[in-house]
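A reminder before we start the practical. When you read a complex entry, don't treat the lines as separate problems. The point of joint prediction is that each chain is placed relative to the others, so the output describes one connected object in space. Small molecules and nucleic acid strands, if listed, are placed in the same frame. In the example below there are two entries. Take a minute to note the order of the lines before looking further.
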Amino acid sequence: MTVGIVMLVHTALNRAEQVARHWTAAGCPVVIHVDRNVPRRVYNRFTSAVADNRMIRFSERHRCEWGTWGIVAASQSASELMLASFQDVSHVYLASGSCLPLRPVQELIDYLAARPRTDFIESATTADVPWTVGGLDSERFTLRFPFSWKKNRYLFDKYVDLQRRVGFKRKIPSGLVPHMGSQWWCLTRQTLSAILQDPERETYDRYFKKVWIPDESYYQTLARQYSTNIESRSLTLSKFDFQGKPHIFYDDHLQLLRRSDCFVARKIWPRAERLYQAFLADGAGAMNKTEPNPGKIDRIFAKAVERRTRGRPGLYMQSRYPNAGWENGLTSNPYSVFQGFSELFENFEPWLAKATGARVHGHIFAADRVEFSGGQTLINGALCDSAAKRDYAPEAFLTSLIWNTRGERQCFQFGPGDNQDINWFIARDPNAQISVISGTWAVPLFRSNRNFADLRKEAAELQRIESSHLDVLRSTHTKARIRIWTMAEFVEAPMEPIQTIIDEIGPPGQRHLAEAPTMANLEGFGQFLQNLKNQGMHPYLMGDFPVEQGPVKMPKPTRKPYLVR
Amino acid sequence: MGVWQSYRLRIQRKRWRIRAFRKRRELHPVANRTAQILPNDIIVFCTQRNERTRLPFFLNYYRDMGVGHFVFVDNDSTDGSLDYLSGQPDVSVWHTRASYKRSRFGVDWLNWLQRKYADGHWCLVVDPDEFLVYPFCDTRPLQALTDWLDASSIKSFSAMLLDMYPKGRLDAQPYEEGRDPIEIACWFDSGNYSLRKNKKFGNLWIQGGPRSRVFFRDMPAKAPALNKIPLVKWDKKYTYVSSTHMLLPRGLNQVYDEWGGEKASGVLLHAKFLDTFSAKAKEELERKQHYSASVEYRAYAESLKDDPELWCKWSEKYINWRQLEILGLMSKGNWA
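Here is the predicted structure of the whole assembly.
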């Protein structure tokens, strides 16, 4: 009782030889199929190199191109040769030249000897598996594929389209239910010989010759006809990326492969010297009865696919530059934008930093420079405070800032005096929490000591800018979390909205606010607005302010309710 | 892209090829060992001038990585680097006295040599102060990468230029021959880059880093481009258009994913800022052989008078490629 290895080889023949000798050393006969595309000279050198080993045979050569019948034909002839020449073979294992046995061969022999009637072949119906590339699943079995997918992709696609439009369908031979799965199988002598000696084989072969990627469906479908006990998984560890090509193993995967407890892995980079050395040294090793466990490898490769298809949200770099709408997150982390707060409250920024534990910047889009927190000129990632650099690429500036400070919440001030080019970007960003008290730009004007004519002009300008910003924020395309109050509204009851915002920012602010920010002295502000109106400039964004208003008193934050026992 | 645009780019590509063909006369072979190149060899192409002290480390760095052959164009060096190069067993070197500027900063010369010797090879075009870092470069040779790129039908590999600088004055630690320059210039800017797309050629245009931060603070548009595509499976029909920033046909510039994913990419560590820099900047300013009337070198000379420090509190110290990947400067893509 032993296992016969059928090996399909097209490159790295020296590695194939090394592995074949490893198999035979443990008593497993090997039949090698060498792709017809390999030059005769190379082939002859290969055969004579292993001529000394009587357990290595060579089968009739076929031309193997990916996705075509040649690979099935190759495995058929090699399997026939195997069954005919080695009578004590009870299982046949299909492997490629870049497969590498990870566990002592004897363990595989024992494992299979303990399951003499089991066929290990991954085999699933097309409707139930999502692993197909190019959107062809059941259609592999019903269309014709005369053009090469690799060389003539255009014709391949066009011909598929044409057949779909015409409604062409091939007939599946009666009795067959199409199944697919990994092309690397291990079948018992009974099942394999039943497939190869089937009286209907002619019909089946003729049908499968025109199926796309028949090596993933021929044995998988036919094994269902004959096998009494199919274990639908492959004994070969083989991972595929998002384009359906196998991941390659390198020297640095050594520990990972050791821990996987799989019998055979593919595909191994031919120059991965350490892997070949480590696994072909076949140390006696404690006999290991564990089942294969590729979980960890699965995770690593699943992550690689995720990185390739979804990427890291909020990252813009040389090999990730998503089209609009495909960013999968415009920025990497949530952040807060405050408009009008630092005008209305004295020392709002330090207060906010204290209340939330977040990093609070000033107006980072201010005209003269970037007001980073604490007056810094540079910040994480060596992002500098030059307004010229920021205005050159405002979106890159903001995304870099948020990316560089991952793990720490950023808050910053914004206003109509700032660079407005960023407005749409922030409004579209679900990570942005925007709180606006409209009309507060009038407060600094009111408190400044300038000529009224200038003030009037500037007020008109600021009101125009803020008004169009509010239009952006109220547009249907915004995705940010937006709150807008007029100044009059806010001054009426300031604590409640502040508490809501702070709560939303997160953990450090979860507690009840102990201290309220101090509101600027607004005595005479109503008169100031009236003066603007009298000059013909109607400020409306701050809501209705009475001309004579009593001094606004910030209410003391309510004490925590306590229980009297 | 319309047919017209496509046709115009084709004409442009032909134009660069003809130009490279004309410029071939400026090159004189000093040591031509290209017959030694094996079919699977990776070839480094490089233009250099007076980089004698840097060359030994440069050559060894790429030899260790698995590069099979080097092709150099020596632009009239006076420091013995030509003799040094012609004495190396795996280097072919051409000499020229012609204008660097008029060969479009060496692009025409290399286009010609690549067309002649790189067809069908993976080739890496770098300067003597650029050191490629790619995913898993500490455990896998460059050929592992190119084999994987081949298997994935990828023809070009992006590696952005990352300016490295020392802490303190540039001339505080003199560079000695054979030493790893990254040991001295081991700091970099991790997160102040901006990208935009070049609609015509389809490449990204990346600016930022310490040069932009210090020398081009007030005119960021003039800061040097950092996007590079140095590793290409060459075909004799290809041409570099401007330095290694972009290529034709333009499909080769599509080294980034537009649908949210990340493609695999590397970084070119740029060890320009060593003690040799001030002298070089001065010389280049006099030769006026650099891009856009040497605007870059003028800016440097301007700032270097006050001996600026490129290092800042937020500079990152270089550790390895994994650090660069975590910072988002490069990516493993789906190579695992």
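Discuss with your neighbour: Chain A touches chain B through 51 residues (CB under 8 Å). What might explain this?
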